[in-house]
Design goal:
Blueprint: H1 16-20, H2 23-29, E1 39-42, E2 49-52, E3 55-59, E4 64-72, E5 76-79, E6 94-96, E7 134-144, E8 147-157, H3 172-181, E9 189-195, E10 204-211, H4 214-224, H5 227-232, H6 237-241
Parallel strand pairs: 1-8
Antiparallel strand pairs: 1-2, 2-3, 4-7, 4-9, 5-6, 5-7, 7-8, 9-10
Length: 300
């Protein structure tokens, strides 16, 4: 792979604004660290599902999606007593927003330990098989390519966060390290998210597609610290499991006609199958000949 950066010939790469966006990469790499979201992308069933105000409104027919990672929370942890049932969710017993200690709002009697590192639920084998009962996750705020003024919450499972990148297929932390090594903030590029067709549970790989142009970057910078974005990356129990409802939102402004969703609406059930099998979708294309091999085709 060439060491040429993604932005070698892009004038904005040397600007102070561009450099200030590197902090999002730091959050993506970090292992420590309001109410129901209006927009959310779920990975349930191995498909990208669009939720608005808690209701599923569409399902993507593709196994990959182009987004901008607008902001990210540190990795968090959640412990459910017994076997978690997605169809009949119950509140978690304990949770941590920074993987160091239980969150302040966890009732004292429910805390499994004073520190996550000492917790019996953090021992390998405490969960199913060799897994840990307390699960890692990471909340990121993303905007769809072509709709950069709308932010969605996306919660990544541990399988989409950890692991080494092989053949250009990188989980989130490997992807963030790769971008940082190329002096490229995740918030300044289009990222392709693709399901791992060989995984029996929803698992994503990430790949750089292209840099944002100047106008796109301005839009994303405005959204980076927008209240909707900060809300999307803030951990609440209601967001995590859907067992509680947030306080009603203020009365909306007169409705404006919004761009057509990039998801293709259908009536597919939300239930998660025991095995996800899908065909590979065409690789994202690179339009700029001066981009480095960072945007080479997927090596399926």
């Amino acid at each position: 792979m060439s060491e040429v950066t993604l932005f070698e010939n892009n004038a904005i790469a040397n600007s102070d604004l561009f450099k200030s966006l590197q902090g999002v990469n730091d959050n993506l790499l970090s292992g420590s660290g309001g109410g129901e979201q209006r927009r959310r992308i779920s990975l349930n069933g191995g498909k990208f599902r669009e939720f608005v105000n808690g209701e599923q409104v569409s399902v993507s027919k593709e196994d990959n999606l182009n987004v901008v990672i607008v902001n990210a929370a540190p990795i968090s942890r959640t412990y459910y007593e017994g076997t978690y049932d997605a169809q009949n969710p119950t509140p978690p017993k304990c949770w941590s927003a920074d993987t160091n200690a239980p969150a302040p709002d966890v009732p004292q009697e429910q805390r499994q330990a004073s520190r996550c590192m000492d917790c019996p639920q953090n021992i390998k084998g405490s969960g199913q098989g060799e897994s840990r009962a307390c699960r890692f996750a990471q909340r990121i705020a993303v905007a769809l390519e072509g709709q950069l003024d709308k932010v969605y919450q996306l919660q990544l499972p541990a399988t989409s966060i950890f692991g080494d990148g092989k053949d250009g297929k990188m989980p989130m932390q490997a992807y963030a390290r790769f971008l940082s090594a190329h002096n490229t903030p995740a918030v300044a590029i289009i990222t392709n998210m693709r399901f791992d067709e060989n995984s029996s549970t929803p698992k994503l790989f990430f790949k750089a597609v292209r840099p944002l142009d100047e106008q796109e970057l301005k839009t994303v910078v405005e959204m980076k610290d927008h209240p909707d974005t900060l809300k999307a990356i803030t951990l609440t129990v209601a967001q995590t499991d859907g067992t509680a409802k947030a306080a009603p939102a203020p009365a909306p402004a007169p409705k404006k006609e919004e761009p057509k969703s990039l998801f293709a609406s259908d009536d597919e059930p939300v239930e998660e199958p025991t095995k996800v099998v899908r065909k590979s979708a065409p690789a994202p294309s690179a339009d700029d000949g001066d981009l480095s091999s960072i945007i080479d085709n997927w090596d399926d």
